[in-house]
Amino acid sequence: MLKEKITLKGLFEKWKLNAPLSLSMKTVKSYERRLQGFILEYGDYYPEELRKEHLGEFIRKLSSESVREQTAAALTNFRKFLSDLDIPFPEVPSYARPKGRQKLPNPIPEEVFWKMMRLAEEEEKEFPYRKAVLILLGLAGLRIQEALQLLPSDIVKEGNKVKVIVREGKGRKDRIVPIAGEYGSWLWERKGRLFPLNLHENSIRKFLKNYGKKCGDPDVYPHRLRHFFATQLTAKGVPVQVIQKLLGHSSPATTMIYSKAVDSLMEEAVEKLIG
User: Taking Cα atoms as reference points, which of 197, 219, 222, 203 lies closest to residue 144?
Assistant: First the structure.
């Protein structure tokens, strides 16, 4: 137990230095942003001075449902951190976004993806990294930062099978994803020079959007390639537990949403018959 009396601002600084290893860097940064607003208002308080009503009032006046939800999650994490130090902190009021229609994944259409792949192959000599991005995100389901963090040693070959080792993905978990057929061979042959040293996420977003416009979908961004990967596997009857492992989801419930997305796409296809 800490003997000195420390304000919430001081404890927040300690939290930043000891952010849970179970969280991804993206989540830590998101929590930090949400907690900064709270600390601006209550940073001079000592933990024992804070009340549950303070937390509820702070959350209620935030700008949107998503910000309220994220802030409640950040405060809950901060409370757990303090609890491990035997420091009191009020229970965070339960907050759940009002129920509405669940937002479904928005994969790029299959024909658009393969048009983009053909375009990347045409430009392969000048921009080989573009084909690598399409393979890793669209045919292996990696998140964009997982792809950018790959090292040559993370692409391995066992017999004639090529696999990608994703180290410290979301939740700091490792996973192994196989790359099918000729695309696996292509990655293996170029594993030492997949991406330019100065390649930034914004450059990838820019070329994907440009490719999308040329291929019939003006709103292509990295995560839609991951959605494409997952919905294609779901449509082909791959068990949800397998897709969960490939995507690195901690819960099968997260993966199940792709089944709903496929159902929705099927409904749209049937509607076109009489449209």
Answer: 222
